[in-house]
Amino acid sequence: MHVGVKLGATLAGAVLAGTALGAGAAAGEQPPPNPGQGGAQQAQPRPPHDGEEGHGPGAIKVGRKGAAKAMHRLMVRDELRQHWCHGRVLPTGGLNLREGPGLRYRVVRVLKHNSQVTTDWDTVQRRDGYLWVRLPDKFWIADYKLGDGNGKWYVKYSNCR
Asked: Which residue would you say has higher pLDDT here, 109 or 81?
């Protein structure tokens, strides 16, 4: 009997959805918010669709020497090296902040041009054509875009080697 009531309620809902009452609600109105959402939702800023982690001009383009210096960060991890490095976001359109080191991780937000960042160079990882570094809040940025013998920095560091 209990199963029959649930099945009947489901069928009634399906029939109403196909009627004018159901069609009118589906055509012009938004569904009500889920409990606990509080009505209006704030939209998350979406990154521009330019195919790069750093958006717009402003990154420092490097030649072979600069590319070698960037790649050196992957190989050398010692006690003498500065671990926490301070810098500023260079691209005029900002830089993606992600949940993890790679393009498969969700973009949390876009850091604005000239935003101050602190990165942990002991976390440097090479993935998806970038060098990724972790920030103190456990999110990640691509601070360097790999190239064929060149590349570009998305962050200008002030005190790192």
From this structure: 109
